[in-house]
Amino acid sequence: MQDEILANQLRALGHPVRLSILRILAQRQSDCCCADVTQCLPLAQSTVSQHIKVLLDAGLIARQARGTRNCYVLATDRLNEMNSAFGGLSELLLQPVEAKKDSAGVA
Prior knowledge:
alpha+beta; Arc Repressor Mutant, subunit A; three-stranded antiparallel β-sheet
């Protein structure tokens, strides 16, 4: 993986809201639109849209047209490349929050 691409992806992962968006998309069984993501976060739709754009630009999610809506899915190929580059980092990021709490010994 090229350093410039990797650095851009890491910058995209550098905000907690964007990590949350990735987790939301990972937990969905199908693609979802910005409004679906917004319902899961205590943020305005415009703020969520800006964070989605950063993830899109980094290639970590993909946009799929569904009629008049844009829906989003994880770009698993890119996440797998990052996983290879960092020995499992993307798997750690995408673990459900509950599993992380359990492994950290937090009740």
